[in-house]
Design goal:
Blueprint lengths: L5 E11 L3 E9 L10 E7 L3 E8 L4 E8 L11 E4 L1 E4 L6 H13 L6 E7 L10 E7 L8 E2 L8 E7 H9 L6 H21 L1
Helix pairs in contact: 2-3
Length: 199
Amino acid sequence: MDKNDIEILAREACFRGFYRLDRIKLRHRQYAGDMGPQLTRELFVRHDAVCVLPYDPQRDEVVLIEQFRVGAMDKAANPWLLELVAGLIDKDEEPEEVARREAVEEADLILGPLWPITQYFPSPGGSDEFVHLFLGRCDSSGAGGVHGLPEEGEDIRVHVLPLEDALAAVRDGRINNAASIIALQWLALNRDEVRGMWS
């Protein structure tokens, strides 16, 4: 099946701000072949996102950032999450440009080559957000401090961790967001190839 198997009956703008919320009435073809019943779904409409895991292949270290996340406030003991450098594609930029810009803004890092990891929908049951995920080569030797854009209210602490410590943080649940888990597990599986190419 493809997009031709969807019939949009109505689309209502429920909220317009930095993000958007739409209510959509639709039908789609079912696996038996006929069109199914009318469904009503709310869709959180977001800009696409770029996430990058800065990695120093010489030191086998990753650079992660820590910042407050309102979405974790009611469901986590500590809503300051360890994450990847990330940003939204909210103007005419390529994903690679966003990765490099955000690395400077959030971690004061200049990235070398970027290695595309994957692209994915983090929550397609109710959001159209699409994530571009990269590994970025960096020199972690001088990384650290607190960064971010004051005009955006950013207060971001930089952490440099040996890859093994970051993987342990995934195992014990200290790292509990999808992009970070995916990127770190990918790096664990591909570390030898990456270090061979980037060393």
